Amino acid sequence: MKEKVKAGIIGAAGYGGAQIARILLAHPDAELVFAGSRSNKGTPAADVYGNLRGRTQLLYVDDNMDGSEEAGKMLLELADSVDVIFTATPQGACAGMMSEALLERCRIIDLSADFRLKDVSVYEKWYKIEHKAPQYLAEAVYGLTEINREKIRDTRILANPGCYTTSSILACLPPVADGLIDTGTLVVDALSGVSGAGRGAKTANLYCEVNESAKAYGVTNHRHTPEIEEQLSYAKGAGTKPVTLTFTPHLVPMNRGILVTAYASLTEKALAADDPADLIRKSYEQHYGSEYFIRLLGEKGCPETRFVEGSNYVDIGFAVDKRCSRLIMMSALDNLMKGAASQAVQNMNVMFGLDEKAGIDFIPDAP
Amino acid sequence: MKEKVKAGIIGAAGYGGAQIARILLAHPDAELVFAGSRSNKGTPAADVYGNLRGRTQLLYVDDNMDGSEEAGKMLLELADSVDVIFTATPQGACAGMMSEALLERCRIIDLSADFRLKDVSVYEKWYKIEHKAPQYLAEAVYGLTEINREKIRDTRILANPGCYTTSSILACLPPVADGLIDTGTLVVDALSGVSGAGRGAKTANLYCEVNESAKAYGVTNHRHTPEIEEQLSYAKGAGTKPVTLTFTPHLVPMNRGILVTAYASLTEKALAADDPADLIRKSYEQHYGSEYFIRLLGEKGCPETRFVEGSNYVDIGFAVDKRCSRLIMMSALDNLMKGAASQAVQNMNVMFGLDEKAGIDFIPDAP
Amino acid sequence: MKEKVKAGIIGAAGYGGAQIARILLAHPDAELVFAGSRSNKGTPAADVYGNLRGRTQLLYVDDNMDGSEEAGKMLLELADSVDVIFTATPQGACAGMMSEALLERCRIIDLSADFRLKDVSVYEKWYKIEHKAPQYLAEAVYGLTEINREKIRDTRILANPGCYTTSSILACLPPVADGLIDTGTLVVDALSGVSGAGRGAKTANLYCEVNESAKAYGVTNHRHTPEIEEQLSYAKGAGTKPVTLTFTPHLVPMNRGILVTAYASLTEKALAADDPADLIRKSYEQHYGSEYFIRLLGEKGCPETRFVEGSNYVDIGFAVDKRCSRLIMMSALDNLMKGAASQAVQNMNVMFGLDEKAGIDFIPDAP
Amino acid sequence: MKEKVKAGIIGAAGYGGAQIARILLAHPDAELVFAGSRSNKGTPAADVYGNLRGRTQLLYVDDNMDGSEEAGKMLLELADSVDVIFTATPQGACAGMMSEALLERCRIIDLSADFRLKDVSVYEKWYKIEHKAPQYLAEAVYGLTEINREKIRDTRILANPGCYTTSSILACLPPVADGLIDTGTLVVDALSGVSGAGRGAKTANLYCEVNESAKAYGVTNHRHTPEIEEQLSYAKGAGTKPVTLTFTPHLVPMNRGILVTAYASLTEKALAADDPADLIRKSYEQHYGSEYFIRLLGEKGCPETRFVEGSNYVDIGFAVDKRCSRLIMMSALDNLMKGAASQAVQNMNVMFGLDEKAGIDFIPDAP
Question: Is pTM beyond 0.80 here?
Answer without folding.
Answer: yes
